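Tokens for chain A. Residues wanted.
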């Protein structure tokens, strides 16, 4: 009898622990939004928040079946990078139109012709698109890695430097609430 009473006392706790999982199952986003380093008509690099046209779709791939995925387009020559602490990447154009996924650390992006900038933290909101290649931007952007730890990133160039279909939501980086992570 004492065992049943103990189990009944634990039942409300079990329901409490289940509730966050139910809340986490909010409806998935319809499209992917990401901060993009683009170029304006004056050939200056700028930050924009882009919404990619390709929708999230339900995955049927083993291991992720039932979750949602977004197709990012054809890519080539993906690389894995380890950026040392306190590294200054200097002024540069994107070497190719590429996704950059920061998985750990921190990157600070700024511009030689403006006070605009963004800080990108590694992790779930660490995906950006760098599209300010030399043919569209005169000066490019500055990237610094001010963390005291290694910054880890994946550079994922798009095939043929093809910009993904998108809509510009606004100038400036995407806000945390726009980044589709249900935080």
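Reply:
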């Amino acid at each position: 009898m004492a065992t049943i009473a103990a189990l009944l006392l634990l039942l409300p706790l079990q329901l409490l622990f289940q509730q966050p999982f139910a809340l986490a199952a909010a409806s998935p986003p319809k499209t992917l939004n990401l901060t993009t380093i683009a170029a304006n008509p004056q050939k200056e690099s700028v930050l924009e928040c882009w919404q990619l046209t390709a929708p999230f779709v339900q995955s049927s791939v083993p291991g992720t079946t039932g979750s949602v995925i977004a197709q990012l387009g054809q890519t080539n020559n993906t690389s894995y990078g380890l950026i040392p602490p306190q590294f200054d990447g200097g002024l540069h154009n994107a070497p190719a139109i590429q996704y950059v996924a920061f998985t750990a650390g921190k990157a600070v992006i700024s511009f030689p012709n403006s006070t605009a900038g963004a800080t990108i933290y590694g992790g779930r909101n660490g995906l950006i698109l760098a599209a300010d290649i030399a043919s569209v931007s005169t000066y490019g952007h500055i990237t610094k890695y001010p963390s005291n730890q290694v910054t880890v990133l994946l550079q994922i160039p798009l095939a043929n430097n093809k910009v993904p279909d998108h809509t510009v939501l606004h100038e400036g980086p995407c806000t945390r609430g726009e980044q589709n992570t249900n935080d």
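The two ends are 43 Å apart (CA to CA). Confidence is low (pLDDT under 50) at residues 1-24.
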